């Protein structure tokens, strides 16, 4: 009896081990099936893994059918598929490629955006220099609380043109919400398609989320929505931090703005003088089509107290011209200080004057500074040779009549170095 019970127990244990092996085989097969399913799903979508939000899935497939992950082309096929480059402004902005206007706060990005839109909508010139390829249908997406400002800019832009063009081809979309929000994209798409817009400028680009990944996704979705509706997207973006006056470079686009295939970067050349109505900016452009360049932009908006009110006068200057003027201004400041030293020596010498050797010795200048300063002053007539004394071989020099009084006046001046402006009275 006892033997039979032991045999029964052993049989039961063998059955349990067998069941366990079968269960493990089932789990292994299930895992392999899941792996295969995941590979199939990978052809239809992209999984993003984040430490704080787990797995986020973005479907990019076209329904139930698996999407191709790549194409193979011969060089001849690639060349055959190449499309001719279309321009909004020749060598400045291309058509159908996303662009950005980037700069710190208060650098006239909105003003430049209106100038750009108005030029495209009339076939005119952006900044009075870059001619639009043709008349385009343009849309401007702006903040509802900036309507008055934008209206004023549009009126001043038209008034600055002798032909006073109308802006019938420029449509406005004034929004109180962020255009990149998912609930607003459909309205934006319908507006673009209704007016068959070819270019859409969004100023400013407002994003509800502060999460960088979500911001990048929102911007890319916005750009795709505008592009699929048939328009070229141009976004106005403010830099995260304020910057000192100077040129910006394309490295500022790294991160959420790396989708841009062309860009206009704007910053101040000089700090704005409040109440002057005058702005001096740097404008740098670039793009994948090979366009590039740097210019100085001088904008005179006038003042409310001016006759006729405010205006929109723009002058574009070559960067090399500005840099040469700035260099010359620095040279002028340097020579002004050195010349002042020589004038003081000659004033102290009185009516008897001094020979060249003594002038240099008393000035305390090195030869490398004295020589160019002397030649410059002699050529300009700022130092004159005195009549020779009998039986003397030394040449003596003094200041021209009235120069002593001028030196006293100069000593009260404060010399200012700008990119092209002379010294001004303090």
Structural account:
It is built from 10 helices and 18 strands. The longest helix has 41 residues, at 2-42. With 426 residues, it is of the alpha/beta class. The chain folds into 2 domains: 87-302, Rossmann fold (3-Layer(aba) Sandwich), CATH 3.40.50; 325-411, Winged helix-like DNA-binding domain superfamily/Winged helix DNA-binding domain (Arc Repressor Mutant, subunit A).
Distinct helical segment count: 10
Q: Reading side by side through the largest sheet, how are the strands ordered?
A: 9-8-10-11-5-12-13-14-15
Element pattern in H and E: HEEHEEEHEEEHEHEHEEEEEHEHHEEH
The proportion of residues forming helix, as a percent range, comes to: 25-40%
Shape: elongated
* Number of separate domains: 2
CATH class group of the largest domain? Alpha Beta
The portion of residues forming beta strands comes to 15-25%
Regions with little confidence, pLDDT below 50 for 5+ residues: 44-65, 410-418, 420-426
Class derived from helix and strand content: alpha/beta
CATH architecture title of the largest domain: 3-Layer(aba) Sandwich
> Do you know the CATH topology of the largest domain?
Rossmann fold
Record field, number of beta strands? 18
Largest sheet: 9 strands, mixed
CATH superfamily of the largest domain: P-loop containing nucleotide triphosphate hydrolases
* Mean pLDDT, all residues: 84
Tell me the distance between the termini. 122 Å
């Amino acid at each position: 009896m006892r033997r039979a019970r032991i045999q029964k127990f052993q049989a039961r244990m063998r059955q349990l081990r067998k069941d366990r092996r079968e269960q493990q085989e089932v789990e292994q097969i299930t895992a392999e099936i899941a792996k295969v399913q995941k590979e199939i799903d990978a052809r239809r979508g992209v999984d993003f893994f984040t430490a704080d939000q787990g797995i986020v899935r973005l479907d990019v497939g076209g329904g139930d059918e698996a999407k191709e992950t790549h194409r193979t082309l011969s060089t001849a096929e690639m060349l055959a598929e190449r499309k001719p480059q279309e321009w909004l402004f020749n060598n400045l902005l291309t058509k159908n490629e996303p662009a950005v206007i980037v700069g710190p706060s208060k650098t006239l990005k909105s003003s430049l955006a209106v100038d750009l839109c108005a030029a495209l909508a009339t076939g005119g010139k952006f900044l009075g220099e870059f001619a639009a390829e043709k008349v385009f249908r343009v849309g401007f997406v702006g903040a509802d609380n900036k309507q008055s400002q934008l209206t004023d800019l549009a009126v001043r832009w038209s008034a600055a043109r002798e032909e006073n063009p109308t802006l019938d081809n420029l449509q406005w979309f004034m929004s109180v919400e962020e255009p990149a929000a998912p609930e607003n994209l459909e309205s934006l798409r319908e507006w673009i398609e209704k007016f068959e817009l070819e270019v859409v400028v969004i100023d400013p680009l407002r994003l509800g989320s502060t999460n960088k990944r979500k911001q990048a996704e929102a911007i890319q979705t916005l750009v795709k929505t505008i592009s699929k509706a048939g328009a070229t997207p141009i976004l106005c973006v403010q830099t995260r931090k304020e910057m000192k006056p100077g040129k910006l470079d394309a490295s500022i686009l790294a991160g959420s703005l790396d989708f841009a295939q062309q860009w206009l970067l704007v910053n101040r050349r000089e700090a704005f003088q409040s109440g002057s109505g005058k702005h001096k900016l740097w404008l740098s452009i670039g793009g994948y089509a090979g366009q590039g360049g740097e210019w100085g932009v001088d904008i005179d908006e006038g003042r409310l107290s001016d006759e006729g009110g405010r205006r929109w006068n723009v002058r574009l200057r070559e960067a090399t011209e500005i840099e040469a003027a700035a260099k010359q201004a620095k040279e002028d400041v340097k020579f002004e200080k050195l010349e002042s030293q020589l004038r003081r020596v000659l004033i102290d010498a009185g009516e008897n004057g001094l020979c060249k050797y003594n002038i240099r010795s008393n000035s305390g200048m090195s030869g490398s500074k004295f020589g160019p300063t002397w030649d410059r002053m002699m050529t300009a007539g700022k130092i004159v040779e005195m009549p020779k004394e009998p039986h003397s071989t030394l040449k003596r020099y003094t200041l021209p009549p009235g120069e002593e009084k001028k030196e006293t006046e100069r000593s009260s001046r404060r010399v200012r170095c700008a990119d092209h402006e002379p010294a001004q009275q303090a």
